[in-house]
Amino acid sequence: MPSTPTPAVTGPYDIVEAAGMPAGSGNMKPEYDERLANEDLAPLRKQKWSSYNIFAFWMSDVHSVGGYVTAGSLFALGLQSWQVLVALLVGIVIVQYFANLVAKPSQKTGVPYPVVNRAIFGIRGANIPAIIRGLIAIAWYGVQTFLAAESLNIVFLKFVPGSASLLDVSFLGLSALGWISYGILWVAQFLLFWNGMEVIRRFIDFAGPAVYVVMILLAIYLVSQAGIQNISFNLSTKQLGFWDSIPVMFAAIALVVSYFSGPMLNFGDFARYGKSFEAVKKGNFWGLPINFLFFSLLTVITASATVPVFGQLITDPIKTVEAIDGWFAILLGGLTFVTATVGINIVANFISPAFDFSNVAPKKISWRAGGMIAAVGSVFLTPWNWYSNDDAIHYTLGLLGALIGPLFGILIAGYYVAARQRIKTDAMFTMDAKGPYWYRKGFNPNAMKALLVAGIPAVFLGVFPKLFADMGLFDISWISDYSWFIGCGLGYASFVLFERFDPQVPTFDGESAGVSDGTIDGGADTIDSTVPAISAEIPVAAPASGAASS
């Protein structure tokens, strides 16, 4: 008789299966502290996402109403079409490079973004970047759901004429129809999320290509209506000279990087599922520069065709579909852009806080519970009231968003320079004061200092220049466009400097057992389910020379 397979090692605090994966997918070990681990956060036993899955992830992230409007808005800066395309391409290549950097530690260890931070910020210190990223995601989750609800409203108004009367009734600043559409999408997104990462993977595998089909059909329709000879690609209302356009192009490049900075920071949440780092890099190549260039070309063609067809430039795809006024176009376009917005919302603003909040209290907050916190919190923020207020967005999200750059810079410096791409995976799940990532009371002092050194200038540059301009003092608001780069550079440089004078991050020189080494080619360094868990009596190795342990 065939032997009965040994059940996965689990504990009483394994609240749910690993982030929607089959039970036992997280390699829980008896020695893992329940205050740091559940099956959602533990290293994956098996990583099987292909390069297409990563490619589809970026398609869902790019193919959104926000991405379309962002690309179209660059024309208002006075750039010509070729300059817009160059800025978009350069910006997305930078995003690709940084996404590869942040992907490696998670893919090699099989753990999500907040857990990787434990090796750099400390076991407790890692909660700081997790909470910051989680709060940003909650705010944008509400905004994206509201934008999708606006698309659904158009469908209701077209096919259910009586629904127009619901626009006259409002509660908390949102019409009754808006509440219905928002509620439908809120529930739909939550059900999709609740079914786990495999269902989400299948959804984004479908959503990205589906949006492409509709975008291509929309572009063909508008070009045929306009006549290709009547389309001009010089859409800017003001024409800048070549030299005057150079700084504007740099600002456009910075805008592209800033737009993707959120999902780029926590890309490890998805890269951990990649079957190899090479597969992740290949997916990033096709999903970012190649995919984004094609999407940008479609955006430019479609936006250009709206001028001769409708007599004005329309950069919002929802308004473009609404202007066509055909029942089929509204139904297909409305539902497609709903799908697109749900796709980006799930990958950028739902999964991130799910892992981030679970990281804060793994025993009490599962992956699903973390997502529930984000979903409920987004409603209480009533995003429809402040999304149309540029000042509210700038002074609230600008404050938190300015910290994304420093967090990114510190993580990259910590992994590639201080740790030399060597992480002891099991050590990220122990509260032992002698553990290598305990540092000082659970916080790496160098990471805390670097966050202050980089975070204060980043927040200042991201928020105060606009405040000074609004007060009529002086206008240096252009510098805010580069707050991510400044914060990232300062975070990277200051952390490297602090580690050079007072090393804290261990490199485990001469050790190989249990160490994930990113310098070694090949697949992930996670432990397969066939490997037995290490006994709880074996202590985690002490920190390497130079690492603080108290």
From TrEMBL:
Keyword Transcription carried by entry: no
InterPro entries: Pur-cyt_permease, Uracil/uridine/allantoin_perm
Pfam family, one: Transp_cyt_pur
GO MF annotations in UniProt: nucleobase transmembrane transporter activity
UniProt main location, coarse: membrane
UniProt keyword terms in alphabetical order: Membrane, Transmembrane, Transmembrane helix
Keyword check for Cell cycle: no
Family: Belongs to the purine-cytosine permease (2.A.39) family.
The protein's name in its UniProt record: Nitrate reductase
Source organism per UniProt: Microbacterium dextranolyticum
